[in-house]
């Protein structure tokens, strides 16, 4: 009978895993530009049936970093539009909710090329989103926005707005830089602590610095790309920064002596 406790433990672990996978109560979801899909956390995404804008799976030509293989498709398909576009999210009951927005930049190779806002029921919840600036190209990025519903009002970031009917709008707002887009999204009736999150971004330079500090010789971090550094200076290098001013102090008396000697020489020649 020694096998019984181990079987019990395994069953408990399986139950805990099942509960954790079903803990998030998703009330709405979409795999923008794609088909139905279930991610590694057990969250089910519905097929995108929106008629506005363009659906694209161009991201399938690359690997999306920061997520497991099963979740990459959520960041590889997208919907974009040359103007604002929206999804309707049904909201019936009062309570705490969380909106999760999923993005990845699969086209541009620099910041400030695609910048846009996101609104929930007319309120800005993400402003000036530049995916490449946040994480780079081909890297998953999530925006997690908690909000409340109480007495037919939506409360987000301390602002209240009326809920007309039984749904609210999720709007991707066009800015001055290219088109707004969405890769995937869902709304869960849950606390923000219950929402699965992405792992932190890799920071190899910080890890190297920590290793060097353990050896007693910390290295200086490499400069950031935005730092203005002049790699090449014009003109010859000067060993002594005061060399020019020192030589000038000697030259001035010489010029003065020459200036005084010239009239004297002229007078002598006249004699």
Automatic annotation (TrEMBL):
Originating species: Bugula neritina
Give the highest taxon in the source lineage.
Answer: Eukaryota
Q: What is the lineage of its organism?
A: Eukaryota, Metazoa, Spiralia, Lophotrochozoa, Bryozoa
InterPro entries associated with the record: Malectin_dom, MLEC
What's the family? Belongs to the malectin family.
**Gene3D superfamilies per record:** Galactose-binding lectin
Q: Which residues form the signal peptide?
A: 1-22
Q: Record's Pfam families?
A: Malectin
What name appears for this protein in its UniProt entry? Malectin domain-containing protein
In residue numbers, the region (Disordered) covers: 197-240
Any transmembrane segments, and where? 250-269
Topology in the lipid bilayer is annotated as:
Single-pass type I membrane protein
Q: What residue stretches are annotated with the Malectin domain?
A: 26-184
Q: Where is there biased composition of kind Acidic residues?
A: 203-217
Q: Which residues form a coiled coil?
A: none
What would be an example GO MF term here? carbohydrate binding
UniProt keyword list: Carbohydrate metabolism, Endoplasmic reticulum, Glycoprotein, Membrane, Signal, Transmembrane, Transmembrane helix
């Amino acid at each position: 009978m020694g096998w019984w406790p181990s079987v019990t433990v395994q069953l408990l672990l399986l139950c805990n895993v099942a509960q954790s996978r079903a803990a998030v109560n998703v009330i709405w979801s979409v795999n923008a530009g794609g088909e139905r899909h279930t991610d590694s956390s057990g969250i089910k995404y519905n097929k995108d049936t929106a008629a506005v804008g363009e659906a694209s799976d161009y991201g399938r030509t690359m690997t999306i970093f920061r997520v497991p293989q099963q979740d990459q498709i959520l960041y590889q398909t997208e919907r974009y539009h040359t103007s604002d576009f929206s999804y309707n999210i049904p909201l019936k009951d009062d309570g705490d909710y969380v909106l999760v927005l999923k993005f990845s930049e699969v086209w541009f190779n620099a910041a400030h090329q695609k910048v846009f806002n996101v609104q929930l029921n007319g309120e800005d919840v993400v402003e000036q989103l530049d995916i490449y600036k946040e994480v780079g190209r081909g890297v998953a990025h999530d925006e997690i926005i908690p909000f409340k519903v109480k007495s037919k009002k939506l409360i987000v970031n301390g602002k209240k707005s009326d809920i007309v009917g039984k749904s609210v709008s999720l709007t991707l707002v066009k800015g001055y830089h290219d088109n707004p887009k969405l890769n995937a999204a869902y709304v869960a009736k849950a606390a923000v602590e219950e929402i699965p999150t992405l792992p932190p971004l890799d920071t190899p330079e910080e890890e190297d610095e920590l290793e060097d500090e353990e050896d007693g010789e910390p290295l200086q971090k490499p400069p950031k790309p935005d730092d203005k550094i002049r790699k090449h200076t014009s003109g010859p290098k000067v060993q002594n920064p005061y060399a020019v001013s020192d030589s000038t102090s000697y030259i001035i008396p010489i010029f003065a002596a020459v200036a005084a000697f010239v009239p004297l020489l002229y007078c002598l020649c006249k004699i």
